[in-house]
Amino acid sequence: MPLYDRILVPTDGSSEGELAVCHALDLAAVHGASVRAIYVVDTARYAGMPMETTWEGVGDLLYDDGEAALETVRELAAGRDVDVETAVVEGSPSREIITHAEEAGCDLVVMGTHGRGGIDRLLLGSVAEKVVRGSSVPVLTVRIGDGEEPPSAAESATAGETAGIDAEGGVSDATETG
Q1: In principle, which of 45, 88, 135, 142 could form an S-S bond with 20, CB 3.0–4.6 Å?
Q2: Which phi-psi region, left, alpha or beta, contains residue 67 (left: φ > 0; alpha: ψ -120 to 50)?
Q3: From the first residue on, what is the mean pLDDT of each consecutive set of 10 residues in the chain (178 residues)?
Q4: Using CA atoms, how far apart are residues 11 and 6, in angstroms rounded to an integer?
Q5: What pTM did the predictor assign?
Q6: Which distant-in-sequence residues (6+ apart) come within 8 Å of 127 by Cβ?
Q7: Distance between CA 5 and CA 108 in Å, rounded?
Q8: CB-based contacts of 91: which residues, under 8 Å, 6+ apart?
């Protein structure tokens, strides 16, 4: 019995967010799962626009961005032989992600987090954090866009050995106390 049958991956169309999409697709390929990808048009963000700005023009642009983002997901999925369904939806991103995960019967949500902390997180909030806190479906977050380069395999192995874990993941003798 596979661990995951259906994985939800929200996308914002950014190149950084593509890391989370690829992670979701790779998990789906390993587990023989299907993927549902969504792009949420955050209508609340544009509610305060001046009256002379028409929603139709802005809405069309946002939907076009969503379709372009989802086309990228479809292309990446095809390269991994993973079944994918896509949808552009409107609303609060965190609420829509949670609703879609639960209504579509997903076993897992995979999404990116920008790794913000301190005042940025306080002021901007975090869609990923709201989803983690509010979802009944397990959420796997992929840290993206924090401005730091990920450690190389050699650096990770060295850090693991320093922490008492050898390169194969086992506990080294250095951590034993006598």
Answers
A1: 142
A2: alpha
A3: 90 91 96 96 71 63 93 96 96 95 96 70 72 95 68 39 41 39
A4: 16
A5: 0.75
A6: 10, 93, 94, 97, 111
A7: 9
A8: 40, 41, 42, 43, 44
